[in-house]
Design goal:
With 140 residues, this protein is α+β, with helices and mostly antiparallel strands. The chain is built from 2 helices and 7 strands, in the order E-E-H-H-E-E-E-E-E. It has a 5-stranded antiparallel sheet, with no helix packed on it. It is rod-shaped, with a radius of gyration of 31 Å.
Length: 140
């Protein structure tokens, strides 16, 4: 343990450095006119750090997510199981890319179909080829 320039006992160099730096940054020069921007230096610095975070971290991630979504919609095909943005599960029966439209079957018993835009597909859950349906065997 050692004493800092402020007379308090400090446990580490980091605390003393932060106190000294903050006092130096906040001290005003006595020989010149006061700086009108002095009160805005800290908020401007925080704003610059926030802007750098947005441009370095957030934008590339959003661009990657958008490309992944476009690729998912481009690869949409018949018999894919999908989830819509409204929370409706269904099976794709027809895709019309030129009309930006997809038709999904939501009920097998009544053959209920919904026609919606491609952008209303939230996720593709998988596909169900017609030949892969096997009855499940029960084990005893």
């Amino acid at each position: 343990m050692w004493k800092s320039a402020f007379g308090a006992v400090q446990g580490g160099f980091v605390v003393d450095f932060m106190l000294t730096t903050s006092c130096c940054l906040l001290a005003q020069a006595a020989d010149g006119p006061p700086n009108p921007w002095q009160g805005l230096q800290l908020p401007m610095m925080a704003l610059m750090v926030f802007a750098m975070y947005i441009f370095i971290v957030q934008q590339p991630r959003a661009k990657r997510e958008q490309q992944t979504r476009q690729q998912m919609l481009k690869n949409l095909k018949k018999n894919d199981h999908v989830l819509t943005t409204g929370g409706i599960y269904g099976v794709v029966t027809q895709v019309q890319f030129d009309a930006d439209e997809v038709t999904i079957r939501v009920d097998d018993a009544s053959n209920t179909r919904l026609r919606m835009t491609l952008s209303s597909i939230a996720r593709v859950l998988g596909d169900d080829p017609a030949g892969d349906k096997e009855p499940k065997k029960e084990t005893k």
